[in-house]
Design goal:
The protein is mostly helical. 60% of the residues lie in helices and 0% in strands. The longest helix has 20 residues. The model has no long low-confidence stretch (mean pLDDT 80). It contains 8 helices and no strands. It has 2 domains: 71 residues, Orthogonal Bundle (434 Repressor (Amino-terminal Domain)); 39 residues, no CATH class. The N and C termini lie far apart (77 Å). It is flat, with a radius of gyration of 25 Å.
Length: 139
């Protein structure tokens, strides 16, 4: 039973962190935005009362966080993680160069030319069904 209280307190702390990160100055302000009774939301945020999945979905959506992070503490807090530029800058220089060459290749339109020239069965998706003309019925 004691471990459940710890999990609930961690979840409550993540809820509070998400609310603050989203720019809500108080639990009451968030409760108003959610159209939830202030004491109910405060109890969720201070860990006195757990919250269920439907509530977690609403909270995650409003606060712009991943529900897996909010409920279970898994993965990054934010949807989408770091910006693409930040992720590229975090790579070693040799990998940054590979990414830049690939982006130049895509930007040049060469990727689409290569794809069009490639046989359909090698493009990574099933071939398109051929449509046969429907026979006309006599009237």
């Amino acid at each position: 039973m004691h471990s459940m209280a710890i999990v609930d307190q961690k979840r409550a702390a993540r809820l509070r962190d998400a609310r603050q990160d989203a720019g809500f100055d108080s639990a009451a302000e968030a409760a108003d935005a959610l159209d939830v009774a202030i004491p109910t939301y405060q109890a969720h945020e201070n860990g006195n009362r757990g919250f269920r999945w439907p509530e977690a979905e609403r909270y995650a959506r409003l606060f712009g966080v991943r529900i897996e992070w909010l409920v279970f503490g898994r993965g990054p807090m934010k949807i989408g993680g770091a910006s693409l530029q930040g992720r590229i800058e975090a790579l070693p220089p040799s990998q940054q160069e590979q990414v830049l060459r690939f982006l130049e290749f895509v930007e040049s339109g060469a990727a689409m030319r290569v794809r069009r020239e490639m046989p359909e069965d090698e493009r990574g998706y099933p071939p398109r069904p051929t449509s046969k003309p429907k026979p006309k019925t006599g009237t």
